Amino acid sequence: MEMHGIKSYGERLQFAYTLRGFPKLYALSHRIGVTDSALSRWFRSEPISMENFAKLCVELNVNADWLLLGRGQHTLGAMHDAPHRKALADVIERMADNDVRNLAKFLDEVTTPAP
Fold first, then answer.
1. Which of 73, 59, 60, 71 is nearest to 16 (CA)?
2. From which domain of life does this come (predicted)?
């Protein structure tokens, strides 16, 4: 689902947040363990850590490629997969920043089609 007119990750984040139906910022910020002001900054496309980005993708059930770059479908699929995404987000949360970066690089390499 391409969203014409949605140019920044912050705008896509706001769209996903609205679509998911969270009643207030606190509902989402509390679930991912950040402040409301951090979430507000991300709505303005300000920098975000890989860890928090992954948590947002899990909680909002959105495709990371879509959220970051606007490519592909915005949803990850059926909500019955959410427990697995939550488990992955929990593992990522316990990892050191350097390990998260290495994991992201590895996943990018194994999911990028060969030329």
1. 60
2. Bacteria
